[in-house]
Design goal:
It is built from 23 helices and 25 strands. It is elongated, with a radius of gyration of 33 Å. Bound molecules: adenosine-5'-triphosphate. The site of adenosine-5'-triphosphate has 23 residues, from helix 4 and helix 6.
């Protein structure tokens, strides 16, 4: 090796003197990202979480039952609890310093390492409070403990004086922390009341034994200035509240709490709530020791494993072989879940604790949830059946997509190309076959179970199809929904349309019994009127008539189309005993397969309307179409509101 290389060629020498040791809280200010994941708005709000989590740990350990959070006009914030109070007696290892000062000015000082002072805690690294201190230009910590009140002030992690004696506090206990984030670190980012409000509220849901009081002097116009959160119903209430107004498969979420000590003899517990919706925008929010884990981890995995095994076992129990196809992916698509576990000495990935890594948590959560889920499914067979059907559909859909991908690769030139989402019927001859054009994928789900596979095909249409009136013909051809529809029907558009090409006898538009549904039906009718007129002339186009209400009285049941009809039955009675139970279907997706079949799809019991054109006044139909679908939305809306009926005739 040459001397040059040994001596180094650079202008500066690289030796022991260039190895720096950052002291005290300096590393935090130098590299905030390592401790709080950045210096952006999220990181700023994380400061509050660090202090709040300390108070929550006190509450969860059974030492506090009230936490107050006050956001002040100057952008500082106070978090107060009625817990044991941070210790402030002299620290044996740091002469002349109180425990309080050690906690706030030293990294890795904490009472949560050995599990002696706290059994299950969100805090574990012993850095939270000191990091907040380091990144605040002003911080005051007050402690009421042992009948005394003390306080100490800090700035950027450095004490601004000794621990001050503030006098006697015979009736108080707890820790009060006020801090103002340092603009040198966070620039112009400020606390957002709405964001704080939301995260504080969810904390209260996570531990029913705590009351959290919120106050803000900053008014953003939408967040309450004061509020008290206390949720004895825990996560089940949280989920119901989050999903208010959303259609769900089970009336009440599957929810529960299990104490690990009682069940497995180890400290900790788990609480959860889940429900499924026809919409595919499921979510999971998980927490460990009240710390949110947005990237999931072992507790989430354990939860899904329990649910998956439970669903499959239930499928086996009711002899539904298809349940074996369900995978975790299918559970997640429409599942909305909350999982919160409390465990001893959790291991997280990173200081911001985004993912739980403790392997044992997975095992404990799975074991606890599994038993409960089995019992719940067995006890509520209605919900269980609906959920199972829904999940099987999701699995079918996934497998079909996979197959489609494979076959479309294998057979580039298929003789008859059909759109992927068409659920075709098995009869190949046209006679007696029907194609349902169904609004929305979720309705497609129940319809698929309700149909007669031999003669009834389904094509789910997503959202509103292109308003074809006034659209250039190129645009019509390019619209995917329309292209799919033409492919399914086996026809071409406009002058190339041949009624004999139709692959089905009846084309049935099936939309929700509401204004939106009427709008979609109107769009489709307009499309057929302008592009496939002979289809209407030859009597192939129909409207399905889904009911709006189901009335039950004892064993008697009727489905009715509108309010007027409902009121007649309510007055007359159904012939059963007791109260008449009225349920309103918000949409097709809300009806189960049995209801949908009986009322809307089964040729033996359904009502169907044939769409015709008034021969005497064909001009008027054109006018009506123009009014409904032309460029004037007010006319259209008014017409639909008043009269969502069209030129139609009952099919008998
Ligand atoms: N509100 C409080 N009441 C009582 N003790 C507290 C409170 N806040 C902090 N402490 C004590 O101070 C210690 C240090 O807190 P700090 O936030 O620095 O770390 P931690 O909570 O142990 O871990 P983490 O770094 O994961 O947050 C805690 O372990 C606890 O013993």
């Amino acid at each position: 090796m040459s001397d040059d290389l040994l001596n180094g060629a650079g202008p500066e020498t690289y030796d022991a003197s260039s190895i720096e040791v950052l002291e005290g809280l300096e590393p935090v200010r130098k590299r905030p990202g390592m401790y709080i994941g950045g210096t952006d708005e999220r990181a700023l709000h994380h400061l509050v979480a660090e202090v709040l989590d300390n108070s929550m740990d006190e509450a969860v350990a059974g030492h506090a039952n009230r936490i107050e959070v006050d956001l002040h006009a100057d952008g500082s914030i106070t978090i107060r609890d009625n817990g044991r109070g941070m210790p402030f007696d002299p620290h044996p290892k740091f002469p002349g310093k109180s425990a309080l000062e050690v906690i706030l000015c030293t990294l890795h000082a904490g009472g949560k390492f050995g599990g002696k002072a706290y059994e299950t805690s969100g805090g574990l690294h012993g850095v939270g409070a000191s990091v907040v201190n380091a990144l605040s230009d002003h911080m005051v910590v007050q402690v009421a403990r042992d009948r005394k009140l003390v306080q100490q002030r800090f700035s950027r992690g450095i004490p601004q004086g000794p621990l001050e004696d503030m006098g006697a506090a015979p009736n108080r206990r707890g820790t009060t922390t006020t801090f103002h984030p340092d603009a040198e670190i966070f620039g112009s980012h400020k606390f957002k009341p709405a964001r704080l409000f939301k995260s504080i509220r969810s904390k209260a849901y996570l531990f029913s034994g705590v009351e959290i009081r919120w106050k803000t002097a900053i008014d953003d116009g939408e967040t309450p200035l004061e509020a008290v959160f206390h949720f004895p119903g825990g996560l089940a209430d949280y989920l119901s509240e989050t999903m208010k107004g959303i259609t769900t498969y089970a009336d009440r979420p599957f929810a529960g709490r299990v104490d690990f000590k009682e069940r497995f003899g180890v400290p900790g517990r788990v609480e959860w709530a889940i429900n499924w919706t026809p919409a595919r925008d499921g979510f999971i929010q998980s927490y460990c020791n009240t710390v949110p884990t947005p990237e999931g981890g072992t507790h989430e995995q354990g939860f899904w494993a329990a649910v998956l095994k439970g669903v499959r076992a239930y499928g086996e129990l009711v002899n539904n072989k298809k349940a074996a196809q369900i995978t975790r992916e299918d559970l997640i698509v429409g599942g909305s879940a909350l999982v919160s576990c409390f465990i001893r000495e959790p291991e997280f990935v990173g200081q911001t604790k985004d993912r739980l890594a403790t392997v044992e948590a997975g095992r404990l959560v799975e074991g606890a949830v599994r038993d409960h889920f089995d019992n719940w499914l067995a006890a509520d067979t209605k919900s269980a059946g609906a959920i199972l059907d829904f999940l099987i559909l999701r699995a079918d859909e996934r497998l079909r997509r996979k197959m489609e991908k494979e076959t479309s690769r294998k057979t580039a030139t298929k003789r008859l190309r059909l759109p992927g989402k068409l659920a075709d019927c098995s009869n190949t001859a046209r006679e007696g076959t029907e194609l349902f054009l169904v609004e929305g994928d979720s309705a497609g789900g129940s319809a698929k179970m309700a149909r007669n596979r031999k003669t009834q095909a389904l094509l789910p249409l997503r959202g509103k199809i292109l308003n074809v009136l006034g659209a250039a013909s190129g645009k019509i051809g390019a619209n995917q929904e329309i292209a799919d529809m033409c492919q399914a029907l086996g026809v071409n558009l406009g002058s190339k349309f041949r009624v004999d090409d139709l692959r089905y006898d009846k084309i049935i538009i099936m939309t929700d019994a509401d204004v939106d549904g009427a709008h979609i039906a109107a769009l489709l009718m307009t499309f057929f009127f302008t592009q496939m007129r002979p289809m209407i002339d030859n009597g192939h186009l129909y409207l399905a008539c889904p009911p709006l209400f189901r009335l039950t009285q004892g064993a008697h049941r009727v489905y009715v189309q509108d309010e007027a009809e409902r009121d007649i039955w309510l007055e007359k009675g159904l012939g059963g005993r007791g109260k008449i139970d009225v349920s309103r279907f918000k949409g097709l997706g809300e009806m189960d397969a049995k209801d949908l079949k009986e009322t809307t799809m089964d040729p033996n019991s359904r009502k169907l309307i044939r769409v015709t054109i008034d021969e005497d006044e064909p001009g008027e139909t054109g006018d009506l179409v123009e009014r409904l679908m032309g460029k004037k939305p007010e006319l259209r809306f008014q017409y639909i509101q008043e009269n969502a009926k069209f030129a139609v005739e009952l099919d008998v």
